[in-house]
Amino acid sequence: MIEIVGVKFRRNCKMYYFSPNGLQLKKGENIIVDTVRGNEFATVILDNKQVDEKEISGELKKVIRIATNEDKKQNEENQQIEKEATKFFKEQVKEFELDMKLISCEYIFDRSKLLFYFTAEDRIDFRNFVKVIAAQYKTRIELRQIGARDEVKMLGENGVCGRGLCCNSFLNEFEPVSIKMAKDQGLSLNPTKISGMCGKLMCCLKFEQNVYEDKLKSFPKVGQKVKTPDGEGTVLQIAVLQDKLKIKFNRPNEDIAYKTYDISEIEFKPKKNAEQNNNEE
Prior knowledge:
Layout: E1 2-8, E2 16-18, E3 30-35, E4 38-51, E5 63-66, H1 69-96, E6 101-107, E7 113-119, H2 127-137, E8 140-145, H3 148-155, H4 166-169, H5 179-184, H6 191-194, H7 209-216, E9 225-228, E10 231-239, E11 244-249, E12 257-262, H8 274-280
Helix pairs in contact: 1-2
């Protein structure tokens, strides 16, 4: 077992594990931690805890100290400089007529670097632009171009559900999301209904996908012939969570009829997937 503490940085909802380094830390405390970028100001969001070493990948960085009043003052000053740098950056973007949009500005706690996160449609030559920024703030300047999902994660919005966006509130990592998930869950494939604020497929499609995949194993496929108490029909629609299927009948000399059945009322022959068919061949 190994002792860890969970911390969060100002602009990232992801929790990182650090070694408490002998300190007893409580949720909400401000601390200074050692990172690959140097010393950083962070907040404890998980008290000291013993976990299996297998849960930790790589070597744990250490908590240096509980933040002092001087540390907190420096952090506040850094935030004020970030605001000023944001304004100056935007003014220079107009001056140089660059086609880019500033998303966020971050001043490293030890003031060794000033980072600017931006979006742009194309690559931009900002060599002279960076020189002006560096001359103004007398520190190392780094510009990072980010994508649409990272932009929304940084800015934060409310989703179509009315709640704060998952990426900005609790998601640690972006996971792959596919249109197949929307199909499995019986959702409309209208892009405006399954896309998030970033214009990409909504992250929440991933949350229940395992449930849908497991349940769909016991269902026939859409378009498959099945036997019902009223005769043979074709699966038109599946309501996975309700265990219901909508069946279409097309009997000679009769109008097409539709009826909904419980999965327990349906008889069908499971279809083999393409991989199984290939193996058998």
